[in-house]
Each structure stands twice: as C-alpha cells, then as structure tokens.
Design goal:
Length: 595
C-alpha cells in the first residue's frame, strides 16, 4: 500500500488540466501511441466539441522512481462551476491534488472554491503553473498569487506546460514524494466507497470504487450498506485505458466492480460496499447530498415516449448523480418530469445527452429555482414550479434563495460588472484588489436572477475574462408574483413564471411580443395576454388568416358587403370557441433566450 498514490487534478475551466493529464499518461506509458488522441480522458463527443470536461474519469498509471515501482491513480475533474459536485466526489476519493493554474490568466474564482474544499478534506496540495510556453504567460505575477493563496514557498510551485511536456517529470516526482500513501487496514472488514457509476447495456451497472479498508476478491458476496441489497462480485479490476480485470483489490486501490445490477435505483453514489459475511459497522462519510439549484420540467414531445424518457433519465442519473427528478404533469404538455440541475450549463448538457445518447426528443420548460411559501395558516410549502404556488390571497410571504457570488475580473470592467449585479437585485458586500489590475468582488444576490442570462452577460462584458463562482447562503423574503400567459383566454401553465414585482410588466410585454412572432396564424384572431392574477398587464393579437369575401361585390349597395362580412365574422367567432392553439417548441425555448 505504501507505493500507491491517489490524486486528482483541480483547476478552473480552460486552464489545461485535460492536456496535462494527457502528458502524464504518455510519460508513464499508460496510453500507447496507437490509442492516443488529444484529451484522452474526455470520451464523450460533447466534451470534445465544447472543450470542457463534464465527467470525472479515473485511470491508473505505473511509475518508477529510483528503482521503486509506484501505482498512481489519477481522477480527472471538471472545471465548470455547474459540475462542482463531480469535483467533491473526486476529492473524497483522494489523498492529494494537483492545483493547476494558468500562467496567462492567474487565479480564478472556481480555483479558489475548489481549493477550500480540498483543504477541508486534508488533501496535500501541489501547485502547478501551466502554459509556461505561452507568449502571454506572467509567471512572476501568478507565482505571487499562488503563494498568497496557499501560503507555500515559491520553489514549491512547479512550472509546467501541458503542450510541450515541460515539468511533467517534476510533477510525477512531486506526487510520489509529497502526497501521502493511503491509510487503511487490509485485515479490517471491507469498506469501499462508490464514487461513480456507469450503465453498460451488456454488463449492467459498473460501479467505480475506492477501497478504504479490507480487500475484495472476485466472486465475493457483497452488499451495499445503505440499500442493503446483496450481490456477487462477478468481475473486479483496475481502470487503465480499458478495464483491466484483477483477482483481488486491497485497501488503497481504486477500481471497478461489476455485479450484474440491472436496476439503476439500487446503486447510490456515495454508498459503501461491504462483505455480506463480515460487514463493516459504519458507512464511509465523504460527500454531501447534492442540492439542485435550478428546476425545469422535461417533457417528451410525443406522449407515448413517457416510459422511455423515465428509463433514459434513470440511466443518466447513474452517470451524473447530481441530476434529480420527480414525475409531474402539465395541462399543456401532458406527463413529464420535474428535474433539478446544478445550473444552466448542466441543464443544457443533460438535454443534449438525452438527445444524443438516448435519442429522446424533449421539451424543456422555463427554468426556475425553489421557493419557500408561508401560508396564512402557518404552513411552509416548498415550491419548485409556478403552478404549485397557492392562490395569492392564501399567501403570507414568499422566501427565495440567496447566494454569495464571487467575481474575479480585471479592474477595467469593475463598473460594468457592478451595474450588471445591481440590475439583478444584488448588493456589493466587498471588493478586494488581489493585484493592481485584478479585483475580487463579493455580491449577495437572489439565485433566481442568475438563472437566466447572467453568466453569458458577465462573459460578454468582460470579454471572457471574468470568472464567477457561487454558493447558496439561505433564504430571504421576496416580493414575488406569478406571471401567467393566456392564449385565447386559456392559461398555458408551461409558460408561467414566478418573477419579482419590479420586472413583471417588462417581462410580460416582452413575452407577448416574442410569442406573437412564433405562434403561427390561425383562421381566427388569437389574443396573447400576460396576467398577474385577474389583472391583464400586456396583450398582443395575432390577426386571423382571412379570405377576401367581398371580392365578388363590384360597386352596388354597401349593405351587401356588410352582410358578407357579418357572415364571415360569425364563422370566425364559432371557430374561435372550438379552436385550440398549438404552441410550437421554439416558443418554450425562446423564453429562455429573451434578450
């Protein structure tokens, strides 16, 4: 066990950790030249297209130093704030972390928040300054930032480049020398932490495990601690580029177990696996239950696909434990699911994966956050979607979730960013100059305001340089109302939103204008109205498609024309009573992209 090292790589998005992982794998001969491709660990097409890591991946490397052989288990992590849950799981399975900082950009917000998480878990931090070969690198300035942040010595920082391979040997050496080996007892009862799982259509569910105590052999009878279900370990092994079966795994090892589990509900990430005959007394604590930030309804375009959609979401949940879902129904869209996501990018990725991996066509409703509603009877209700809100006369008060947001940016854009945050009902808590040209600002903001377009606008104001990170701080009272959209006098529940009083009129009129463009013309006038309770605050009318019934009248008495028009008007009126308006899918998506 003393020759095993378990470590992860943590960094902000785009600081080059996937490229650095490639170099480590090549240097240790884990990946052959024939199998090699850029970003070897990012195996999803989506990850390659967008250049982001979505899943954390584990891989084992063999390394020799001074004639001794070592086993290094690397767990690669995503960098985007929406996938921070993946990072917390990787941290729970490791003893050390490489903190990768881009020498051209310096410390960013996500780096700081993940670093605190790693320090809380007593991980040994090895600072690495990446992209040293770039012309715009500022090594001295970034070195000072790292020293300030973790209080290490300047000579502890490894200067490296994922592109050229500079500094990779030093990193491998530092991993062996600085990170402690796993502590565990091979003779104790088995305790293995499940830190990830994937669904394979031939083998069932494959769980990735980190063995904390004891050992596991092929064919052992094992059980999951929390669910109490028992299985047989059909195959165990370690993770190389492909799965590599082994007869036994001991304390400290990171590997996988296949036990023919078919039902995705039976595997919970964060559970502990132990032996049936000699079970451990307690499960491993390691990571918190995930709290979704953003909720949205996902509905199948074709109502018959409901069961397929349920199966698809369950399989996705295995691969992404931060996705939560419960069934719900809507008047306009039929049966579907109310899903919880960690953020908007997470929601977009899930939607894309449902389409690519499971071939599901889905409609997503307007995303919103969860609110606490206190009724006049003194009850507290948690509301995830606007249709669940009680009638206005029964509500005592509504509380909405607030976050503490950290923005790190160059000092040129401070004014515009403060204005953006104040427009979003934020308050500036403090402002610290990290260096003469970099500022860290902390805001107190409602979560619902950053759900729509905050991130995109922040990036466009700062030309892509500002970095943003947030965590929830609690609930505060809010003046919120339900804004409903009526088509032809009927409510479309999928388009209703909970919104702050000050923004309601503006948002309502923009919605009506947008829907007027998107809804096709009918044979009769269609009224699109935005309403708060019984009060209509905005209206647009889609004019009817009409036939020119008076074309045959040439000259003559006006009453002949009027008779024909009256006849047409009666027909339109009757049609309007029986007609119903189909809302195209673009209309639901357009609401998300209201500028």
């Amino acid at each position: 066990m003393k020759n095993i090292r378990n470590f992860c790589i943590i960094a902000h998005i785009d600081h080059g950790k996937s490229t650095l992982a490639d170099r480590l794998l090549q240097k240790t001969g884990t990946v052959s030249d024939r199998d090699y491709q850029d970003q070897v660990l990012d195996d999803m097409d989506l990850e390659r297209e967008r250049g982001i890591t979505i899943k954390s991946h584990a891989i084992q490397m063999n390394y020799e130093l001074n004639g001794e052989k070592y086993i290094l288990n690397l767990i690669d992590t995503p960098g985007h704030v929406d996938f921070s849950y993946e990072v917390s799981r990787s941290i729970a399975a490791c003893e050390g972390a490489l903190l990768v900082v881009d020498a051209t950009q310096g410390i960013q917000a996500q780096t700081i928040s993940v670093l605190y998480q790693a320090i809380d878990n007593n991980l040994e931090i090895i600072p690495v300054m990446n992209k040293m070969d770039s012309d715009s690198a500022m090594p001295d300035e970034v070195q000072d930032q790292i020293v300030d942040l973790i209080g290490c010595e300047p000579e502890d920082i490894i200067r490296a480049s994922g592109k050229t391979g500079e500094g990779v040997d030093e990193i491998l050496e530092a991993i062996v020398k600085r990170i402690s080996h796993p502590k565990g007892d091979e003779e104790a009862p088995l305790q293995a932490l499940v830190f990830d799982s994937v669904f394979n259509s031939f083998r069932g569910i494959i769980s990735y495990i980190r063995i904390v105590n004891g050992q596991i052999r092929k064919g052992d009878k094992v059980k999951f601690f929390n669910t109490g279900k028992e299985y047989e370990a059909d195959e165990i092994g370690v993770l190389k580029i492909k799965q590599d079966p082994r007869p036994v795994l001991k304390a400290g090892d990171v590997g996988y177990i296949i036990s023919g589990i078919k039902v995705s509900k039976e595997v919970k990430v964060g559970d502990t696996i132990t032996h049936v005959e000699n079970p451990c007394l307690t499960g491993i604590s390691g990571f918190e239950d995930v709290k979704p930030m953003v909720y949205a309804g996902i509905y199948p375009v074709d109502a018959d696909d409901y069961e397929d959609l349920r199966a698809s979401i369950e399989k996705l949940q295995l691969n992404d434990a931060s996705l939560t879902f419960i069934p719900e129904s809507s008047m306009a869209l039929g049966f579907g699911f109310r899903c919880g996501f960690l953020g908007l990018l997470h929601m977009e990725i899930i939607q894309e994966r449902l389409d690519r991996e499971f071939d599901m066509d889905v409609i997503t409703t307007v995303p919103n956050v969860s609110f606490n509603v206190y009724t006049k009877k003194g009850e507290k209700i948690e509301v995830h979607n606007p249709s669940g809100l009680p009638e206005p006369n029964l509500i005592e008060r509504i509380e909405e979730p607030y976050i503490k947001a950290q923005v790190i940016t160059k000092s040129d854009w401070v004014g515009q960013i403060i204005k953006l945050c104040l427009d979003k009902r934020g308050t500036l808590l403090n402002q610290v100059y990290l260096t003469s040209s970099r500022v860290e600002m902390t805001f107190d903001m409602p979560l619902s305001e950053i759900v729509f377009d905050f991130y995109d606008r922040l990036k466009s104001i700062s030309k892509g340089y500002a970095s943003f990170d947030y965590h929830q701080t609690g609930f505060k009272d809010a003046k919120l109302i339900r804004l409903e959209i009526l088509l032809n006098g009927e409510k479309v529940d999928a388009l209703s939103t909970l919104i702050h009083v000050d923004h309601a009129y503006d948002f309502g009129s923009r919605m009506c204008k947008k829907l007027k463009e998107l809804i096709p013309r009918q044979q009769y006038d269609v009224a699109i109205q935005a309403a708060i309770g019984a009060k209509i605050i905005a209206r647009e009318t889609i004019k009817a498609v009409r036939k020119d019934v008076t074309a045959k009248c040439y000259g003559g008495d006006i009453t002949r024309k009027r008779k024909l028009l009256e006849k047409q008007k009666k027909g339109k009126k009757r049609m309007r009573q029986v007609g119903n308006v189909e809302v195209p899918q673009q209309a639901f998506l357009a609401v998300l992209k209201l500028d």
